[in-house]
Design brief:
alpha+beta; Translation Initiation Factor IF3; 4-stranded mixed sheet; 2 helices; 30% helix; 36% strand; elongated
Length: 94
């Protein structure tokens, strides 16, 4: 029996919701004393940067970006077309 890969609990996936939803998710994980991975693709990349800056400026002035990774992912649409989408992964911690 194949098991699906376990979703990481320390990762916040940025999408189309309001920024404060993601900010609160990051802050609550930081309050638990662990580093947080913020992942975004395409147009949401700028939101991921905004979220990081809001957390740093409003909640944790000592917040550090411990690492970041910029990649391009190949995605296949519902119609079978393939396209390349940029993605970013930011790892932040206190």
């Amino acid at each position: 029996m194949d098991e699906a890969p376990e979703k990481r609990d320390d990762t916040v996936y940025v999408g189309k919701k309001e920024l404060m939803v993601y900010v609160l998710a990051v802050v609550s994980r930081l309050n638990e004393g662990r580093d947080v991975r913020i992942k975004a693709r395409g147009k949401a990349i700028s939101s991921a940067v905004d979220i990081t800056q809001i957390v740093k400026n409003k909640f944790y002035s000592t917040l550090q970006v411990k690492s970041f990774d910029i990649t391009t992912e190949d995605l296949t649409g519902e119609d079978g077309t393939r396209r390349k989408v940029s993605s970013v992964l930011l790892v932040v911690g206190k």
